[in-house]
Fold this protein.
Amino acid sequence: MTELTTLARPYAEAAFKRAKETESTDKWTSQLSFLSAVMSDERMQKAVSNPKVRRDVLALSFLGLCDGQLDAEGQNFVRLLSQNQRLNLVGVIANLFGEYRAEDEGYVDVDVASAFDLSAEEKSKLSKTLDATLGRKSRLNVSVDKGLIGGVYIRAGDRVIDASVRGQIERLAKSLWN
């Protein structure tokens, strides 16, 4: 994964720089998200990784699938990625772009998995606590994971807080076996 990140970084940086110059970070975010969704299709991954497919034909096909979803700069970005055989990096580029945007705008995206639905009050308290802990404004993406049994599992960038019952049981089992 680190190698893919290294390959994707210059494209993500260039896209973010251009988005800032043109004040179009929202548009770039949605375009990169759409491109990432297109690339997640198994058939598209096979086509992109097939060395027999001509790059110009691949770019045209890819753009055909994206009809109406990309502006001129987005289309040029796809052509550039195709020409350099980097279309397979679109998902990584989108993630890096999101990280650059979050850093620039002073927030952090936080994935919260909870065993049960959180009320608005619980989300608010959790958000305030995370803001203080992380030193930045947090944007919560809350989901329900019944497998946690109870508690929450929080991921903010490379930082993980496992306050779930399942995590506690796993740590207890590990300490008993050691």
Notes: The mean pLDDT is 90. The chain is about 60% helix and 15% strand. The radius of gyration is 20 Å. Residues 18 and 24 are 8 Å apart (CA to CA).
